[in-house]
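Re: Re: ligand-bound prediction request (bumping)

Still looking for help on this. To restate: I need the protein modeled with zinc ion bound, output as structure tokens. Inputs repeated here so nobody has to scroll up.
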Amino acid sequence: MDCIFCKIAAGIIPSKKVYENEHVLAFYDLDPQAPVHVLIIPKTHITSAAEITPENSAIVARIFEAAAVIAEKLELKDGFRIVSNCGPAGGQSVPHLHFHLLGGRDMTWPPG
Ligand code: 5GP
Ligand code: ZN
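Reply:
Sorry for the wait, this slipped through. Here it is.
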């Protein structure tokens, strides 16, 4: 297992967990870009959004269900942003599908 987020999902690398169920894990980002910065990942390895297929796409729904629960739990009443960087030009640095949930400040657009 040579993937940081697979190791976090397996508990081999510690993380500050925010939410977990059978399929999904959410934990605080080590290098937060907003007052609230949570990463939501599938527990199974999918490299990026580019690898989503009809066979594995149900996990994306599970992740967004988790995001809504987390936003409620963390009281992001004014709103939040969900981002998934994909590939080198998309700014992805960890090749395990993840969604950044950012909140606690006003977001800018375009994101840059
Ligand atoms: P990406 O750049 O791929 O969109 O996002 C990867 C994110 O993972 C970055 O925001 C980075 O700070 C975070 N990250 C990388 N390694 C670790 C780690 O070991 N633990 C946690 N909690 N976050 C990590
Ligand atoms: Zn992985």
